[in-house]
TrEMBL record:
Residues 398-444 form the Rieske domain. Keywords: 2Fe-2S, Disulfide bond, Iron, Iron-sulfur, Metal-binding. Coiled coil: none annotated. SUPFAM superfamilies: FAD/NAD(P)-binding domain (SSF51905), ISP domain (SSF50022). One of its GO terms (molecular function) is metal ion binding. It comes from Hungatella effluvii. It holds the Pfam family DAO. It comes from the Bacteria. The keyword Iron applies. This is Glycine/D-amino acid oxidase-like deaminating enzyme. InterPro entries: FAD-dep_OxRdtase, FAD/NAD-bd_sf, Rieske_2Fe-2S, Rieske_2Fe-2S_sf, Rieske_Fe-S_prot_C. GO terms for cellular component: cytoplasm; membrane.
Length: 444
């Protein structure tokens, strides 16, 4: 399963950790957030090493639609209602600043990564009032958002919210360029973290500050992220040749689609669901039906799935890993918006390690308590996890080594998935996505 990003970019390999090391900052994970954080920390004069269990950019960073946008579905109405307009505006501004920071970084280092400024749209073929309300909330939060009636999509819409001056890029080209002068050790699996010591399969790293940039934190206690997050799958198909779209599009209707061009290649997205709760209809087949109707003279260049960590209140966890561990930091729960949030997170975590505050700390702090925003999702997540754990207690069923939940087979990707926290395994038992750290001994 290769995306158009992994098909077109091969980042040169790095050596594994050569043995025990000591450093100021250790970053666990060489995805987009990890590389950005390492870059900004090095820029601030910190000695930084990055530990990666596989290859640079080999995780979810290479399986995204790569939209850099503050348009995060119907989020701003929810944030205003559950967090208040002040926090909602801070969330919006953190993401708007991230777009500007990408542009500055790409211009400064002349990174060739197909970076383009484009408007982002939320659309519906059924309703308009909720989109008008979203446009109003987003504008009040400081985003250049407006309601429109017309789009360039090949079908009529009832309305859309236009977010001006957003962006898109090739994520692996960007990561390859930015990671060039960083110290990254690949094929180095972190087994355990104790205080300031990181125990890997290649040696022990001692660091004054430790940044968890590993998608879903594998350390369960403290932090308890396994209680506060779950994962969702979504599917993408690359079609072409298709006339390039001037904007990026996301539908809000049930079973809707997303659209984004990469030159004359169309990235069509569909089929979001909780990992381990597979839909009855195959998302790839659904996209092929849409292709036959609207893009009949195109070829299928590739297809792949992405997995996203979802927080229970729709806001990422960025900052100190736990209230009792001052020198551990984390960024996770990005939802479907990891490109923009990775930049915002890198800026926040870098500032905190340097002893500075940002205007966004309070919004994203992992130590927040917002029952109004999180209660219903938390209870739903707890129910799925409890069911998975009870099923895992049965004998002779594949169980996730993370916490013992029963695994479910995803026929679309040909993988076993954990419905509790989203770990994924190949059919031969090899682990491909955490928070589990171990492969399965066998699959029956």
């Amino acid at each position: 399963m290769k995306s158009i990003w992994t098909q077109t970019t091969k980042i040169p390999g790095r050596n594994p950790l050569p043995g025990n090391k000591k450093t100021e900052v250790a970053v666990i994970g060489a995805g987009l957030f990890g590389i950005l954080a390492a870059h900004y920390l090095k820029e601030q004069g910190k000695e930084v090493i990055v530990l990666e269990t596989n290859r640079i950019g080999s995780g979810q960073s290479g399986y995204t639609t790569a939209k850099i946008t503050s348009q995060h579905n119907l989020i701003y109405q929810k944030l205003v209602n559950t967090m208040g307009e002040k926090h909602a505006a801070a969330y919006a501004m953190a993401n708007q600043q991230a777009i500007r920071d990408y542009e500055k970084l790409i211009d400064r280092y002349r990174i060739a990564c197909h970076f383009e400024k484009k408007d982002a749209y939320l659309f519906s073929v059924n309703e308009s009032e909720i989109l008008r309300q979203e446009a109003d909330c987003a504008a009040r939060c400081g985003i250049p958002a407006s309601f429109v009636r017309e789009t360039e999509l090949p079908f009529p819409v009832h309305g859309a919210v236009r977010f001006a001056d957003q962006a898109q890029f090739h994520p692996l080209e960007f990561i390859e360029a930015l990671s060039g002068d960083l110290t990254v050790y690949e094929r180095t699996t972190v087994r355990e973290v104790k205080g300031h010591e990181i125990i890997t399969n290649r040696g022990v790293v001692k660091a004054a500050h430790i940044v968890f940039a590993c998608h879903f934190p594998f350390v369960n206690i403290p932090g308890f992220y396994f209680l506060r997050m779950y994962q969702e799958k979504s599917y993408v198909m690359a079609l072409g040749p298709v006339k390039e779209l001037e904007g990026m599009y996301l539908g809000i209707d049930k079973n809707s689609y997303s659209f984004r061009s990469a030159g004359d290649t169309l990235l069509l997205g569909h089929g979001s669901h909780r990992t381990g709760k597979c839909p009855k209809k195959n998302p790839y087949e659904e996209m092929r039906r849409l292709r036959e109707h609207f893009y009949p003279n195109t070829e299928e260049y590739g297809r792949w799935s992405a997995e996203d960590c979802m927080s229970v209140d729709s806001v990422p966890y960025i900052g100190h890993f736990s209230g009792v561990l001052a020198d551990w930091y984390v960024a996770t729960g990005f939802g479907k918006w990891g490109m923009t949030t990775s930049m915002a997170a890198a800026r926040i975590v870098t500032a905190q390690i340097m002893g500075r505050r940002t205007p966004y700390d309070e919004v994203f702090t992992p130590q927040r308590f917002r029952p109004k925003a999180a209660a219903s999702t938390f209870l739903s997540h707890a129910g799925y996890s409890a069911a998975g754990l009870m099923s895992g207690a049965m004998t002779k069923v594949p169980r996730c080594p993370h916490l013992g939940c029963r695994l479910v087979y995803n026929r679309m990707d040909g993988r076993y998935e954990c419905p509790c926290h989203g770990s994924q395994f190949e059919q031969n038992g090899k682990i491909c996505v955490g928070p589990a750290q171990e492969s399965l001994p066998f699959i029956n």
